[in-house]
Write a structure and sequence with these properties.
The chain is mainly α. The protein has helices at 2-14, 19-28, 41-56, 72-79. It has 4 helices and no strands.
């Protein structure tokens, strides 16, 4: 669940680096990307993931599981050991 919660935001952020690959992933998830513009890739893939999350009952985003702006520093601090 941890990966899925952040996936829509991550793919919106990373799409400009390789829109074609993001559109390909969205196509594999059943999206019609035949008329999609490269700048729409992140939103299209994020939408496909959010749709899947809704269908299987996974909350969408950190706020949906009780985190708020006051938790940001602790969440960031928790990610730093993973980079070592």
């Amino acid at each position: 669940m941890a990966v899925c919660l952040n996936a829509p935001a991550v793919f919106r952020f990373t799409a400009p680096a390789n829109p074609a690959l993001h559109l390909y992933a969205a196509k594999l998830m059943g999206c019609d990307v035949s008329k999609a513009k490269p700048e729409e890739a992140g939103e299209i893939l994020a939408g496909a993931i959010i749709d899947l999350m809704r269908r299987v009952g996974i909350p969408n985003g950190l706020a949906a599981i009780g985190f708020g702006p006051q938790d940001l520093d602790k969440l960031v601090a928790g990610t730093l050991p993973q980079h070592a």
